[in-house]
């Protein structure tokens, strides 16, 4: 790749697209060349704010003569077609997760990705959170000895709208997918999945036969045991914690406080504000670092970016969890993959 500053096409300018737009504009090694969204008003607004030419047709934005790389931040059902177009044009692509909700469509794309001459990265941004990345590095360096147990807690502040749940593919494919990727990031390949779900409070989840509360236990090939706890609500803010345990001790990623001010009065002592409100704030650094890693891959052919195979492997775990929770039994990965 030759350009000094990589010229990016951004496809999709919704919630996460705007985060990518801001990061591409702020990064000294990248610039926005094209901002594509069928909602032209949104593309116009983002282009005016962060640079690039607005466009309505996403496929026309994937043009190697005008762009060096593409970020896909459009709705999940569009990812496969856009990734395919990037591969066909030899343009490096960072696609938002998940690759798709349908495993057979992911598998149909797999041989093409294997033969691709250009990078295909998947946006598992949490790997790039400074605290998570540090704990993973220290675990890999052996600080707690062999990893015996990993606990991942992820609770959203409040459930998404029912209409979103209806198209999300369910909690495992939509929300737990990030934790499945982290499980592999820390513990390596997973052999067994046991998932339990319940619908305790969310009418949207009930309407769409989904869960709002799940616990998943994974057994890695190494023998490490991973526990994932998810809830679609949390009264005290966005709850994102990791605990890595081994014979040598414990490493923790704690929640980020929204403020360092504490308050004491007649009813509490040294009370803190709730944790940061949502993923865009909690993982702001992670999204910027994710872009940096992708740029490294484009420039130097090697990086820490999650690959298409990582995206697929997390999806396999989501399918296994779905089956396990519905069938009420442990699912071995080799049963379904
Ligand atoms: N990594 C993360 O933390 C994270 C967070 C949120 C969303 N996501 C993923 O990002 C994707 C987008 O989610 P969002 O919350 O930003 O959605 P959104 O609905 O806020 O935005 C989607 C945008 O894409 C546009 N769009 C619709 N059809 C399109 C098409 N065919 N081509 C191009 N653009 C199109 C829409 O007009 C809209 O502006 C989803 O796949 C989602 O799973 C990832």
UniProtKB/TrEMBL annotation:
Record PANTHER family: BINDING ROSSMANN FOLD OXIDOREDUCTASE, PUTATIVE (AFU_ORTHOLOGUE AFUA_2G10240)-RELATED, NAD(P)-BINDING ROSSMANN-FOLD SUPERFAMILY PROTEIN-RELATED
Family annotation (NCBIfam families): myo_inos_iolG (TIGR04380)
GO CC annotations on file: cytoplasm
An example molecular function term from Gene Ontology annotations: nucleotide binding
GO terms for biological process, alphabetical: NADPH regeneration
Pfam families: GFO_IDH_MocA, GFO_IDH_MocA_C3
Family: Belongs to the Gfo/Idh/MocA family.
Transmembrane spans: none
Domain (Gfo/Idh/MocA-like oxidoreductase N-terminal) ranges: 6-123
Keywords: NAD, Oxidoreductase
Protein's name in the database: Myo-inositol 2-dehydrogenase
Domain GFO/IDH/MocA-like oxidoreductase: from-to ranges: 133-250
């Amino acid at each position: 790749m030759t350009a000094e500053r990589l010229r990016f096409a951004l496809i999709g300018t919704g919630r996460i697209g705007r985060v990518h737009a801001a990061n591409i504009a702020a990064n000294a090694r990248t610039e926005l060349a094209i901002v594509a969204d069928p909602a032209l008003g949104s593309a116009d607004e983002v282009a005016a704010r962060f640079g690039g030419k607005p466009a309505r047709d996403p496929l026309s934005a994937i043009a190697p003569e005008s762009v060096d790389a593409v970020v896909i931040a459009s709705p999940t059902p569009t990812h496969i077609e856009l990734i395919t177009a990037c591969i066909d044009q030899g343009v490096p692509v960072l696609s938002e997760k998940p690759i798709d909700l349908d495993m057979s469509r992911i598998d149909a794309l797999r041989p093409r990705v294997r033969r691709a001459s250009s990078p295909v990265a998947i946006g598992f941004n949490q790997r790039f959170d400074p605290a998570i990345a540090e704990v993973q590095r220290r675990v890999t360096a052996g600080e707690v000895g062999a990893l015996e147990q990993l606990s991942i807690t992820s609770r959203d502040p409040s459930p998404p709208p029912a209409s979103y749940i209806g198209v999300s593919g369910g909690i495992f494919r939509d929300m737990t997918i990030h934790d499945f990727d982290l499980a592999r990031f820390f513990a390596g390949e997973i052999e067994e999945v046991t998932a339990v779900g319940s619908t305790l409070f969310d009418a949207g989840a009930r309407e769409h036969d989904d869960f709002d509360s799940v616990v998943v236990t994974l057994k890695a090939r190494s023998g490490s045991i991973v526990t994932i706890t998810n809830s679609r609500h949390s009264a005290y803010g966005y709850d994102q914690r990791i605990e890595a345990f081994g014979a040598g001790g414990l490493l923790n990623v704690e929640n980020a406080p929204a403020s360092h001010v504490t308050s004491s009065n007649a009813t509490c002592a040294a009370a803190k504000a709730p944790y940061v409100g949502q993923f865009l704030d909690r993982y702001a650094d992670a999204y910027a670092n994710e872009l940096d890693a992708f740029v490294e891959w484009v420039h130097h052919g090697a990086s820490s970016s999650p690959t298409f195979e990582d995206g697929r492997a997390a999806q396999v775990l989501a399918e296994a969890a779905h089956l396990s929770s519905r069938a009420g039994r442990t699912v071995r990965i080799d049963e379904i993959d």
